Amino acid sequence: MPQPRFDRRLFLRATAATGAAVTVGGLSAPPASAAPGGFPDYTYVRTLLTPSQLKYNPTGEIIFPCVRGVYDKLSAPLGRYYLYYGPHDAPGGICLAYGNSLEGPFTEYPNNPIVANNWQPHYSVSHVASPHVMWHASAKELWLYFHGENTTTRLARSKDGINFTYDKVVLSTSMLPSGTTETSYARVFPHELPSHGAHYVMVFMLNNTTNHRDIHWGWSADGRTWTYDQQPLIRHSDVGAVNVGGPHLLYRDNSTYVVYNKDKESGGDLMITEVGNDFSKRNHLGVLYNSRSSAPENGRAAAPSFGTDGGVPYMIYEAGERLSGSIAMARG
């Protein structure tokens, strides 16, 4: 019997966006069913991190996971994969766990937080949160984007993924239209945008005085200095939500997609919109992942991070009500 075809180009493209690894020769068959756009139909497998089981647990909540394959990037990593996360409420803190499989288990780094809410002489804020780490290939560094306060996103850089050097503020409410009150939960991806002279794009959540959150975006030649579109990329009203947030880019069949979460009042699911490689499309495709009413999701999945391991697609995400959930893993 002939073997199912493994779409190597698709997996390599997805890996460039997520920083995780692809092993050709692992699972080769496509998923039995598919989500919108032909993406995998992810199924919850297990919880990876629960606040009550963590040594660093100042607030009883953790959010915004970001997983990165580091075994082929760092000289002596603690594990094949680094999982960044943290509490949101004050004092917050950027935290690290490590493991050898996206299936888990992940071990808490003993000296969390690796970035705190007071970093002199650069800042002193009530909290820092929402870590997104990108492998910057030309610098051979892991670049950490994180917020604190909710008005400001900052950049720090590291050679080992643990010890970071502060760089600069890359996003603030002052860079967006008048009335903007929050610019946070940013994720950055290598992405060629020739019309803008850009090699990186950022997607993030914006709130304003109407208290409805949308997805916005920006572009950069170097990942440090940014230009931001003054209009939303995805409006909450376009997808029947009160708020949308937690955006992440995915790639398939030579196109670009944004995955993001609806607030629990609007269903608590992960949605997907095709924006195209030049971000000119607005093809709202519906639900990518339907959150379950049972634990640990309790009707809410949010802030996904994606990767592949052995050819198997994974999604690591917030599961549960905001500020009382855990970090879970689903497999496609």
Automatic annotation (TrEMBL):
SUPFAM superfamilies: Arabinanase/levansucrase/invertase (SSF75005). Residues 1-34 form the signal peptide. The keyword Signal applies. InterPro entries: Glyco_hydro_beta-prop_sf, TAT_signal. The keyword S-adenosyl-L-methionine does not apply. Keywords: Signal. This is Secreted protein. The lineage of its organism: Bacteria, Bacillati, Actinomycetota, Actinomycetes, Kitasatosporales.
